[in-house]
């Protein structure tokens, strides 16, 4: 598995192009594509580039690979960040329908009910994510799968946390198993603060429990990008 190194701006262009290519490839053999996206500043530049890609967005459904369990209008909400960066633009330009956007709206449900509702929403379209975009944290966490914590959960679909090591404490995340079912995974290590996480990712002595980002190593079509020298 190769790690592609480049300047951040070049990586953002390469990742946006790769997502567009994968969407086109999958649509040759299936009617719809599910793209799973995270929050965080590392992906904002990619989102801004995606809105100008020639993608048949009306055949793409967008889900959250993880979400902070705050209201949709809260500044910490991951979907809101994606909406501001590119989804709102796509809707206004009539490139995508709102019914193709799948924020987590089940905040007032009991945890298990909310997870099941979001799972069922996905299963109406697909049994898995086609393309999953992930960005590593400084501790090697991806989505809301943290070392020696939620990454140990063996659930098949989504899980909720009420004790996240990183605030806010209440979060939703795709489980380790479910992310590993993705057809394509793109993983980012952007910024010098992620240098130790990248070293841990490359360290064969460490497990997924130590460095959750390593879960992508079991996905055949995985792509790793970094701007760390």
What do you see in this structure?
- The chain has one domain: 3-Layer(aba) Sandwich (Rossmann fold), CATH 3.40.50.1360.
- Helix content is 29%, strand content 19%.
- The chain is built from six helices and ten strands, in the order E-H-E-H-E-E-H-E-H-E-E-E-H-E-H-E.
- It has a seven-stranded parallel β-sheet, with helices on both faces.
- Helix 2 packs parallel to helix 3.
- The model has no long low-confidence stretch (mean pLDDT 95).
Descriptive key words:
229 residues; Rossmann fold; 7-stranded parallel β-sheet; 3-stranded antiparallel β-sheet; 6 helices; 10 strands; globular
Strand order of the largest sheet: 1-10-9-6-2-3-5
From the spread of the alpha carbons, the general shape counts as: globular
Structural class: alpha/beta
Mean pLDDT metric = 95
Described by strand count, sense and barrel closure, the largest sheet is:
7 strands, parallel
Number of helices: 6
The CATH architecture designation is 3-Layer(aba) Sandwich
Give the radius of gyration. Answer: 16 Å
Low-confidence stretches: none
* Count of folded domains: 1
Gap between N and C termini, in Å? 18 Å
What's the order of the H and E elements?
EHEHEEHEHEEEHEHE
Q: Class in CATH?
A: Alpha Beta
Approximately what portion of the residues adopt beta-strand conformation? Answer: 15-25%
What oligomeric arrangement do these chains adopt? single chain
Number of strands: 10
**What portion of residues is helical?**
25-40%
């Amino acid at each position: 598995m190769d790690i592609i190194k480049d300047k951040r701006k070049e990586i953002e262009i390469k990742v946006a192009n790769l997502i567009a290519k994968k969407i086109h490839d999958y649509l040759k053999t299936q009617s719809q594509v599910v793209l799973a996206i995270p929050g965080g500043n590392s992906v904002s530049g990619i989102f801004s580039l995606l809105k100008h890609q020639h993608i048949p967005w009306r055949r793409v459904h967008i889900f959250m690979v993880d979400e902070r369990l705050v209201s949709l209008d809260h500044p910490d909400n991951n979907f809101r960040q994606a909406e501001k960066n590119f989804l709102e633009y796509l809707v206004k330009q009539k490139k995508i329908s709102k019914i193709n956007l799948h924020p987590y709206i089940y905040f007032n449900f009991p945890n298990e009910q909310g997870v099941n509702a979001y799972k069922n929403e996905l299963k109406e379209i697909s049994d898995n994510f086609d393309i999953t975009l992930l960005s590593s944290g400084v501790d090697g966490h991806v989505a809301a799968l943290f070392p020696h914590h939620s990454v140990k959960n063996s659930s098949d679909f989504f899980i909720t946390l009420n004790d996240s090591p990183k605030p806010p404490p209440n979060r939703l995340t795709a489980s380790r198993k479910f992310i590993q079912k993705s057809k394509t995974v793109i993983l980012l290590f952007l910024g010098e603060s992620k240098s130790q996480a990248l070293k841990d990712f490359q360290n064969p002595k460490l497990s997924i429990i130590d460095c959750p980002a390593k879960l992508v190593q079991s996905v055949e079509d995985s792509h790793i990008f970094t701007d760390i020298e």
